[in-house]
Design brief:
- The chain has 8 helices and 12 strands.
- The chain is an alpha/beta fold.
- The strands form 3 sheets. Strands 6-9-10-3-11-12 form a 6-stranded mixed beta sheet, sandwiched between helices.
- Helix 6 crosses helix 7.
- The longest helix is centred in the middle third of the chain and has 14 residues.
- 38% of the residues are buried.
- The chain binds adenosine-5'-triphosphate and magnesium ion.
- Adenosine-5'-triphosphate (ATP) binds next to strand 2 and helix 1.
- The site of adenosine-5'-triphosphate has 12 residues, from strand 2 and helix 1.
Amino acid sequence: MTEDFRRATGPVISVRNLHKWFSGVHALRGVSLDFERNEAVGLVGDNGAGKTTLISLLAGVHQPDEGEIFVDGRPVRITRPREAMQLGIETIHQYNSLVPQMSIARNLFLGREPTRASIFGIGFLDIARMRTESTTALADVDLHLRSPDTPVDELSGGQRQGVAIARAMHFKTKVLILDEPTNHLSVKETNKVLAFVRSLAGQNVTGIFISHNMHHVFACCERVVAMAHGRVVFDRKISDTSIEEVHDVL
Ligand SMILES: Nc1ncnc2c1ncn2[C@@H]1O[C@H](COP(=O)(O)OP(=O)(O)OP(=O)(O)O)[C@@H](O)[C@H]1O
Ligand SMILES: [Mg+2]
């Protein structure tokens, strides 16, 4: 690897020659990409192109069979979702990232539960803190729900997406990956998510936004990367391309 990877000023995430097989399926066929600091990248491509597979390697859901991942220039092995979170990579998955039976507050702190020491030295969940902090986190993303105690399975799709976004923002993530976050959302809710993605750069967050809707990508990203059959086939600044040009390569 070159010296560039050693500098903290370089890309926040770099991947080199990633390969992933799922039994007989060669889902990633040598993907190399850099994700720069504070930029929103749209990741597009047909069904089965490998988008979710790629981000699942960054989110610690799967491990690459070949290739390397660098975060802030350092080679990393991300073997669990919790390790991704510790590296500052938060993911809102294509199929909901929340536990429906749990309350909003519990979901917000999933994997990061604050504990309070008891007189016996056993840590107890700090429920009061989770409730108050959850209310703030939701208000910060302009989501006003009845109560942080509401179970997530009583929320609409858009509200669930809002909780997942609130969680990512509250814990000051460095990279936020959104895998088709606007699926099943109303126009109003979709516009909220797009505005949110647009605001990421200003909050020093790198966004990776996966979508089938090219208009959404062009509305909120600075760069577009297209994948086909497990490979990157197009990578361009939004200002230097057009929806038609991206469609043509897919
Ligand atoms: N867990 C898995 N087990 C087996 N095969 C998988 C698994 N995950 C993905 N694949 C296969 O890998 C390929 C890439 O799938 P992936 O989910 O990455 O596509 P995608 O670009 O996210 O598509 P979509 O736009 O439909 O979400 C597909 O052929 C898919 O069937
Ligand atoms: Mg997918």
